[in-house]
Amino acid sequence: MFRQDVVKDNVNKFSTDYQNRQEQICERPKKKPRQKK
Prior knowledge:
single chain; mainly alpha; 0% strand
């Protein structure tokens, strides 16, 4: 029913989007340092 290559495509797209988002977060200047307690 559900085509495997479509699933793989979606996963790849999600991974890329996630990576890009992480990079943007890293590049964004930090307003306040987030500390773990």
